[in-house]
Write a structure and sequence with these properties.
Blueprint: H1 3-20, E1 24-26, E2 29-31, H2 47-50, H3 60-69, H4 94-101, H5 109-112, E3 120-121, E4 127-131, H6 136-141, H7 147-158, E5 168-171, H8 185-202, E6 206-210, H9 212-219, H10 225-228, E7 233-235, E8 238-243, H11 246-251, H12 256-270
Parallel strand pairs: 4-5, 4-6, 6-8
Antiparallel strand pairs: 1-2, 3-5, 7-8
Length: about 270
């Protein structure tokens, strides 16, 4: 077996080990990752990697370069500004807002989504949790933060005596970008106004942004996680805290301690 192929298989085996581990335990907290991880839950090999045989001389960098350079066929996508109710900004409740905008085709993501991921939870929540964009599971189910990351987020909330029904969970982008790519500036500008309206209607005491990408998108600047996590920042007049995304904890258990520290601060603030 070539060194490249063995390295790839070793990588997948490490992911399996992480998936079976308890990610945090102490006398006052017990977060756990979903047990019995199957290979169906692991990252999928790209087609470029699958084609490598034992005699291949390609390096990992060459494979990655070839994958990045692949192009997808051009698809004609019709942008329809009339796909939302023109009076959506006047919506008095989240239910009305959803009905006004869930057929949105104001950017190209509307044509590629399976389901519009509006948000879910307590419409009067003190805590609003925000991620960047839906992933595959969210796009399939129409709900934010489901799958392994969602289950981990549920456990994190439970550690400070909160359930998903106590908070509201949403994303900046309401439709999944193809292949989980980063949303474009145009897509963010088109969709973030919906989040602004959600914040207005929910009127939370605190907002928790999950992940550096979500934080940078909200704050409109590049940041370093260690410099901003655990601090109280301002986002459109609301108190914003930032911590690691649950998926980051699945990849790197070393992030467990900082997240717990951030959640303890948040718990104290919400109790005031």
């Amino acid at each position: 077996m070539s060194n490249l192929k063995q390295d790839i298989l070793n990588y997948f085996e490490r992911q399996k080990v992480f998936g079976d581990n308890i990610f945090f335990e102490s006398s006052d907290i017990d977060f756990k990752i979903e047990k019995n991880l199957s290979r169906n839950d692991m990252p999928k090999r790209s087609k470029a990697v699958e084609k490598i045989d034992d005699n291949s001389k390609k390096s990992i960098s060459e494979v990655e370069s070839n994958t990045k350079n692949k192009t997808t066929p051009n698809v004609s996508i019709k942008i329809d500004d009339n796909s939302v109710n023109k009076n959506w900004k006047d919506a008095a409740t989240l239910d009305v807002l959803y009905n006004d905008i869930h057929n949105c085709l104001r950017c190209e993501l509307g044509a590629t989504r399976n389901k519009f991921v509006f948000g879910k939870g307590n419409p009067n929540a003190d805590l609003l949790i925000i991620g960047e964009a839906p992933g595959r599971d969210e796009d399939s189910q129409g709900e934010p933060f489901v799958g392994r990351s969602g289950k981990l987020l549920t456990s994190i909330l439970e550690s400070i005596q909160l359930s998903r029904n106590d908070v509201y969970i949403a994303n900046i982008i309401k439709c999944r970008p193809p292949n989980n790519r980063k949303p474009s500036t145009k897509e963010v500008d088109t969709c973030e106004v919906y989040l602004h309206k959600q914040i207005e209607l929910i009127n939370p005491k605190y907002i928790l942004a999950l992940g550096l990408t979500a934080a940078d998108t909200l704050l409109k600047e590049k940041n370093i996680m260690k410099d901003i996590r655990g601090k109280i920042l301002d986002y459109r007049g609301k108190k914003l805290m930032i911590t690691y995304h649950p998926s980051a904890l699945l990849r790197n258990p070393n992030f467990k301690r900082p997240v717990w520290e951030d959640m303890k601060i948040l718990k104290s603030l919400l109790s005031e």
